Each structure stands twice: as C-alpha cells, then as structure tokens.
C-alpha cells in the first residue's frame, strides 16, 4: 500500500479513437488524442498495477511500464479487451466509433460518374457495456467515460444505468471547453452515491486523482 495502492492488481484501460475502415485509404473516426486514457494507464502503473492499455491509433508515445495493445477498429478493440481480462479494474476511456461501414471496400472507392458513394452504417459493439454486463468475470470496478457537449451530468447518469458500470467520469467536450486535444480537463464523477465535481486540472493530475479514488473503492483503503 502506501504509494503503491494498486500493487498486485490488474488494470485494463482503453484509450484513443477507433478507426473504422471505409476502403484501404479512408476511415470513419472519432476525435481523440488518447491523452487522458494514456495518462490514466501511466498513473495506474505508477500506483503499482499490472496495466494493459488497449489503444486505437494515436500520435502520443506509449506510457512507461504498461503493456500496450494497438488496435484500429472497435471490433479489434473488443477482442483485445476480452483477451486482456480478467482485471480488477477496467477503465474505458476510448472514444469508440458508434458505427462502422457495413462492408468496407477491398479497393479504393473511385470518384466517378456515379457521384458520391452512399455509406451504409451498422452499429459497433459497445465494449464498456459488454464488459460491465458480463455474468462471469466482470471486473469488480468498471469505469466509463461520458464526453458530452451538453447536459453533462444528466447524460452521465443515464449512461451509468444504460451501460451497467459502477462509475462514470463525465467531461464537457464542447468546443469552447478546450478539452479536446488540450492539456486540461474538468471532470465530474457520477456514481450511485451521487455526483462529485472536480476543479479543472491537467490530464495527468486528473489521472492520478482518479487512480487514487479507484484504488480506495477497490481496496477500501484510505488513499
Ligand atoms: O454513450 P457512449 O457510448 O458515448 O459512452 C461512452 C463510454 O462508453 C466510454 O467509456 C466509451 O469508452 C464506452 N464505449 C465503448 N464502446 C462503444 C461505445 C462507447 O466501450 N462502442
């Protein structure tokens, strides 16, 4: 314990966006730098945990002391997450694309007489919900994120119920918040116990405070 409150614990973190192929050169993607998720993985490792970070395509370095599994699509992310289980703590910070193209083209789609192509989308698996709702092998603490541009707390509460996770870290990602790709984050923790709003902090400080909080919940120890 002490400065290693997660010693001997297995922690799974998802981070970054997913890229859903349209054809060999084009993708459907979310905006996500991966900075908050990567910082959480680094903070968990610093707290002594055995960390697997499943990350979509990002341009930031791998955190030190962490096992990194690089994926592209939501389906690859789900498979890697299942591979990485069991875990004591699972944190889903990735910005997963809600939809993918039903059948991606094996060849580059050409501009032509037919005009722009129509993309038929199908829903991606919900990785967080599928882990949180597992009958067997559910991690004791499952944490989701809610990136919202309005009604942040309301949406986070609804998400908590819909996904079946224990805690939602909610943040305002409206363009005027500067959170997207930025250094700082302002989060609120939403759980069955209520809502806790934190002041704006660097993403590293948010990660450390979150990990301290999760460790307390997991071990019942004071952090
Ligand atoms: O409502 P939304 O699906 O955006 O909820 C976001 C939370 O769910 C995040 O924790 C995100 O990582 C997770 N998620 C997921 N798989 C999806 C969509 C979202 O794990 N397909």
From TrEMBL:
Cofactor(s) needed for function: FMN; Mg(2+)
UniProt binding sites for CTP: 98, 108, 125-128, 145, 159, 163
EC number of the protein: 4.1.1.36, 6.3.2.5
Residues of the DNA/pantothenate metabolism flavoprotein C-terminal domain: 6-215
GO MF terms held by the record: phosphopantothenate--cysteine ligase activity; phosphopantothenoylcysteine decarboxylase activity
Catalyzed reactions per annotation: (R)-4'-phosphopantothenate + L-cysteine + CTP = N-[(R)-4-phosphopantothenoyl]-L-cysteine + CMP + diphosphate + H(+); N-[(R)-4-phosphopantothenoyl]-L-cysteine + H(+) = (R)-4'-phosphopantetheine + CO2
Keywords per UniProt: Decarboxylase, Flavoprotein, FMN, Ligase, Lyase, Magnesium, Metal-binding, Multifunctional enzyme
Pathway: Cofactor biosynthesis; coenzyme A biosynthesis; CoA from (R)-pantothenate: step 3/5; Cofactor biosynthesis; coenzyme A biosynthesis; CoA from (R)-pantothenate: step 2/5
Cofactor comment text: Binds 1 FMN per subunit.
Residue ranges, annotated region (Phosphopantothenate--cysteine ligase): 11-223
Stated role: Catalyzes two steps in the biosynthesis of coenzyme A. In the first step cysteine is conjugated to 4'-phosphopantothenate to form 4-phosphopantothenoylcysteine, in the latter compound is decarboxylated to form 4'-phosphopantotheine. Catalyzes two sequential steps in the biosynthesis of coenzyme A. In the first step cysteine is conjugated to 4'-phosphopantothenate to form 4-phosphopantothenoylcysteine. In the second step the latter compound is decarboxylated to form 4'-phosphopantotheine.
Assigned protein family: In the N-terminal section; belongs to the HFCD (homo-oligomeric flavin containing Cys decarboxylase) superfamily. In the C-terminal section; belongs to the PPC synthetase family.
Protein name: Coenzyme A biosynthesis bifunctional protein CoaBC
Species of origin: Methylopila musalis
Lineage of source species: Bacteria, Pseudomonadati, Pseudomonadota, Alphaproteobacteria, Hyphomicrobiales
Gene: coaBC
């Amino acid at each position: 314990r002490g400065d290693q409150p997660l010693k001997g614990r297995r922690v799974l973190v998802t981070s970054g966006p997913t890229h859903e192929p349209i054809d060999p050169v084009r993708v459907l993607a979310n905006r996500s730098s991966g900075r908050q998720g990567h910082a959480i993985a680094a903070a968990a490792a610093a707290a002594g945990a055995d960390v697997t970070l499943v990350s979509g395509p990002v341009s930031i370095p791998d955190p030190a002391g962490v096992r990194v599994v690089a994926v592209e699509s939501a389906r690859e992310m789900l498979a890697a997450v299942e591979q990485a289980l069991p875990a004591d703590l699972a944190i889903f910070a990735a910005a997963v694309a809600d939809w993918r193209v039903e059948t991606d083209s094996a060849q580059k789609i050409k501009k032509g007489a037919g005009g722009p192509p129509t993309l038929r989308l199908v829903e991606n698996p919900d990785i967080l919900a599928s882990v949180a709702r597992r009958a067997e092998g559910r991690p004791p603490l499952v944490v989701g994120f809610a990136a919202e541009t309005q009604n942040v707390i309301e949406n986070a509460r609804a998400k908590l119920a819909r996904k079946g996770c224990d805690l939602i870290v909610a943040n305002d990602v409206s363009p005027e918040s500067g959170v997207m790709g930025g250094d700082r984050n302002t989060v609120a923790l939403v759980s069955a116990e209520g809502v806790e709003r934190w002041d704006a902090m660097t993403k590293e400080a948010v990660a450390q405070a979150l990990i301290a909080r999760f460790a307390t919940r997991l071990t019942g120890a004071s952090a």
